[in-house]
Amino acid sequence: MKILSLKALKQSYTILKTLLNQKKKPLNTYFLIIKGMVNIKKEMHKLNSFKEFVALATVSAKDYQKTNLSMIRHFTDELNVPGIYVTLNKPYSAMLTHFKKAKIDSRLIIFIDAITKITGGKIKKEKNCLFIGSPENLSDISIAMDQAVRALPGKNKFLFFDSLNTLLMYNSVETVIKFIHFLAGKMRVWKVKGIIISLKKKSNDELIDELTQFCDVTFDFGGKK
């Protein structure tokens, strides 16, 4: 895995200090794009008083993308916080398209892409993306997250990990449990607002129950039962 140097990442993100000062507070309406899921706004606002936390969020497959984008909007637009988006499901290029449509400023985010290479996508040097070989390369993902967190300006930042289900496709349950335990610990060391995403599936209920012990709060955005 080729990781950009910490110096290069910091140089790429000096612009963030200016962007964070210039961004205007948005109208408090962006959660309306999710029909029947107004609880997202209420639940996310509960975390505003915490400087850092580790949260596990289960989301329905139907509203998966919209829910994720709404949570990112909460950080970047309302809280004016930069962060890291670890994507194991969709390539960086696809994420940029989604962010653009949702009017989310992707310049505030460092992406860690662990899917483009394994799907045969084209890789080119990007200022705000680190490409990892596969969701199976947990060590490389860990290194990339550490460099990205240290590269972001300021003390207030978030880390969004998408998703638990993809990890399970490439790693054993035991390995995933150990990695999430490790990740939760690192999120606390980094002092970030951490979100770990999982699709809501009955087959994952026992695993989710076990992982909640590593987290400060859990959200269920799975829709009606």
Write up this protein.
It is a single chain. The chain has 225 residues and is of the alpha/beta class. It has one domain (6-13, 38-221): 3-Layer(aba) Sandwich (Rossmann fold), CATH 3.40.50.300. It is 41% helix and 16% strand. The protein contains nine helices and seven strands, in the order αααβαβαββαβααβαβ. It has a seven-stranded parallel beta sheet, with helices on both faces. Helix 1 (6-12) packs across helix 6. Mean pLDDT is 85; it is low at 24-38.
Radius of gyration: 16 Å
Instruction: Indicate how many domains the architecture comprises.
Output: 1
Q: Helical percent range?
A: 40-55%
Q: Give the low-confidence spans.
A: 24-38
CATH architecture identity = 3-Layer(aba) Sandwich
Strands, total number: 7
Form type = globular
| Fraction in beta strands | 15-25%
Q: What is the mean predicted local confidence, pLDDT?
A: 85
Briefly note the structural class of the backbone: alpha/beta
Q: For the report, how would you describe the main beta sheet?
A: 7 strands, parallel
